[in-house]
Design brief:
With 267 residues, the protein is an all-alpha fold. 76% of the residues lie in helices and 2% in strands.
Length: 267
């Protein structure tokens, strides 16, 4: 029951909420002194908010506090999005982007789902959160600034440079927690990190309108849950299969994406 939570859990909940409000308020104030682009302020909150959740496996012994945080955070974000008095102040951090997106709502939902599914396994929780928190913004920044080789999968444009940045950040985000928090051998951890990096990069590429905040962590969790039980030989076999199939899957997805884009232009 929620009312039976020990005092330190209530304190942790209060600290997390205070940090999130302080982060949003700090960014809103900073924007008045030094203007930030809509994407920059959004990504800074994304990174800061994600990093605050890394303490959850040690701060909370059960899922109730994280569920409660999601029940508080999601309506609060929607209020900031739609209520005018908030939208013009705190909402300037997240809601100046010129596109339809509920990514900020999907984020706390993903954190909640991961914590419930992980059942106290720190690695299964931390790795998806790290990939979402660090690799996703890296792909956006590199893709926007340096992306020249662009492609279309389902909806919207992506870039090869952005996807490469995502993989390069997702790899250490997977490898280091596996080595530090599990008994996985170095070779197995490297193979798992490559597999997770490649497949979650594809998941990010096919995401649209903020759904990457759901697809990335859930796909990461499912992949880790399956791969951690495989021996080195089976991991190698999986890597060979993925390496052979991925280019064909990518080309097929690009072809369908371009056809869908062409139909939208015609209509």
């Amino acid at each position: 029951m929620i009312h039976s939570l020990p005092i330190n859990m209530w304190l942790s909940i209060g600290i997390e909420l205070a940090v999130l409000v302080g982060l949003m308020g700090g960014l809103a104030l900073y924007q008045r002194w030094q203007p930030l682009s809509p994407e920059a302020s959004r990504k800074l909150f994304h990174i800061g908010g994600g990093l605050t959740t890394l303490t959850f496996p040690w701060a909370f012994a059960s899922a109730w506090p994280v569920v409660l945080l999601a029940l508080i955070t999601v309506p609060s974000l929607l209020a900031v999005k739609y209520i005018r008095v908030f939208k013009g102040n705190l909402g300037s951090v997240l809601y100046r982007v010129d596109r339809t997106s509920f990514g900020e709502v999907y984020f706390p939902l993903s954190v909640c789902l991961l914590f419930v599914f992980a059942r106290g396994n720190a690695a299964l929780f931390l790795i998806p959160i790290l990939i979402l928190t660090l690799a996703d913004p890296a792909a956006a920044v590199i893709g926007c600034r340096y992306g020249q080789l662009r492609y279309i999968l389902i909806k919207g444009h992506k870039s090869v440079e952005g996807s490469a940045a995502f993989f390069l950040v997702a790899f250490p985000c997977t490898l280091l927690p596996l080595l530090l928090l599990t008994a996985t051998s170095l070779l197995a951890a490297v193979l798992i990190a490559i597999l997770v990096g490649l497949l979650v990069t594809l998941a990010e590429a096919v995401s649209w309108e903020g759904l990457d905040n759901l697809f990335i962590p859930i796909c990461s969790f499912l992949l880790l849950s399956g791969l951690l039980h495989l021996n080195t030989l089976l991991l190698l076999l999986n890597l060979v299969i993925v390496t052979c199939l991925l280019p064909g899957v990518f080309r097929l997805a690009c072809h369908r994406g371009m056809r869908a884009a062409a139909k939208e232009e015609q209509s």
